[in-house]
User: What shape does this take?
Amino acid sequence: MTVPGTDISVKDVIVGSTTELLATFTVSASATGGNHAVTVKAKGQTSDNSVTFFVQIPTKIRRDSISALQNETGGCGATKTLNYSLLDQAGVVISEDLTVDEVLSDFTSDPSGLQQPDPKHPPANAGHLVDEVGYRIPTCPPPFTISLTQKFTVTVGQTTYNLTTTNSVSYGRDASGNKFVTVTNTTP
Amino acid sequence: MRNLKSLTICFAIGLVIAVSGQTTQIAKPSIDETLERSLGGNEVDYSSTTDAFHKSLGRIGMAGGSVRILDCNGDYFKQAWSPLNKTLRQALDTIVENDPRYRWQVADGVINLLPAAGEPAFLKTRIVEFRAENITLAMDTVTPLLKLPEVQKAMDDLNLKPGIAGFITSPSRKPFSVECKGMTLRQALNAIVRAQGRGVWGYVETHCYQQNEVIITF
Assistant: This one.
């Protein structure tokens, strides 16, 4: 059993049944994404290329849901919960357990001088990622607004992939005391 | 005379899971083993020192915490962070070599990044008792911690006020509990991330004109 090129090596081929072969595929870190033809040779005959091995490339995260605003119990904060799925280049969920790195930029605050949140590195378990976005504070502060851009990367082995998803995040409290958390999602 | 440390009790319960009616302790790698793990990744970023620390720990899911002291000028120092071919230990050593204002240490089973000049007095506040049960979001411990009488007294004594703790974070998949008695605030933060399993806390103390502010995030 072979896969043309150097992206994927095949070893430990064994016969599972009269209609099944089992093998271990090792994918290089630099493998090209998409379908790779798998060829089987037996007794002088070569199979057609109808069987393929698909190399997934982490490409974007899809926002599956966003909760209503949740007030902090015992304090004056507020949060929203967002559920995401990590997708490959074909829009299929990547079911591996991977770590997503969040990249925060374009931070602004009103009044100026408020602190930017630390970027986090949440696990995407079986392709499912949960984010809590908002703020905590024991007593209600004066009106404020914090805005930033949130992007994502995923590292597999030694390769880091920049995802195409961008969130515009804003949270704060207005002059009437209304708390808000908005997350505007752009996923090309 | 009994050592004060012997009075410190903390139960991190998050690592115990029940399987088919039996209780199983999850075997975790030692800190030394974790420090020798390769980070993975090939990017080069320009990050603040604490961001570089958080990224290094986050890349392999190691728990820890960082301390940052700021003045009116903020912290504009950026350093190149590159995980390629680096173990966690090498990455941490590189971070503090690039920014000697900081040192890292293993404390309470996690990794802390502290000012080389010393730990802030507020983090040495001794907590009589703190308990959080069956939580999934470590951020939910911040307000209860800051509302403890001994913590509020320390804030008053040090002329500190809580700031707005903004966060984008991921809840734990499994609820965890933590109970702390007679430990310092830093030890309590370490106990919380240890119970959570992979969290990293951040402590920012800002002194600017008459504003002296503390923010704790997970």
Notes: Residues 7 and 31 of chain A are 5 Å apart (CA to CA). Chain A touches chain B through 47 residues (CB under 8 Å). The two ends of chain A are 38 Å apart (CA to CA).
